[in-house]
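Listing S7. Sequence submitted for prediction.
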Amino acid sequence: MVIALAVLSQASFFQNATEAFLSRFTSASETEGGLEGTIGNRYLGGMISALTGTSNTPFFGYGIGMGTNVGSMLLSGGTQFLIAEEEWARLIGEMGPLFGIIVIFLRVGFCIKVAFACYEKLSASDFLPWILLSNGLLLIPQGQWAQPTALGFSTLIAGLLIASLRSAPLKRVVRTS
């Protein structure tokens, strides 16, 4: 495989594809502000902006579904963000500060619990849960659950994570005399 990669890296079509990929990766990193902009502002900053932007939100929120595309279409006649574009802000806007934060902490708590369990499996040389965790930590805590496809993928990866953490059942050996 290493030899094939070395041979392919000399071909012009492979060099063009590699150069285009690296150029796209570099320009996206510069646009987003590097690692700090991507993880700090987009991922972790979503929680801070969700909490600071809820001063005018009613205690019980505006109602579940108002932040979805269907809710927007029914209430305003068009698809627009009535509450917020980010998932955590949408949860707080729909359910209110108390219940929205509870749901957010449930999602984050589930991810923390699964992450520790995946690490235990990794130390036992079971790599599958650890590999699935990389996708789960992006989709489960902050995935856009207002959109059915994204909700389905979040549910699928959560189910796969839980299934990968199960141990294989012990087989009984029946001895006959």
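Caption to Listing S7: primary sequence and predicted structure tokens for the chain studied. The longest helix spans residues 87-123. The CA atoms of residues 117 and 165 lie 7 Å apart.
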